[in-house]
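Aim 2 progress update. The chain analyzed this quarter is reproduced below.
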Amino acid sequence: MNDLEYIKNFSKIRVKNICEKAKVNRANLYNNRTKKENIEKVRKTIESELAKLYLIEGDSDGKY
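Predicted structure tokens:
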């Protein structure tokens, strides 16, 4: 994955999409009116999406 591909993939990570995946109401999240478990779920989903960016398939030169 080259630098431009990384940037494009990074820009696809949006809180709106993360909340939809985690099934958490975004407005309640932003206004701190949700359970602590939901906040943790959103955080873990964000971390998971970021980790996917670092899983580089077929990159033999070791560059990021």
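The two ends are 7 Å apart (CA to CA). The mean pLDDT is 88. These observations will guide the mutagenesis experiments scheduled for the next reporting period.
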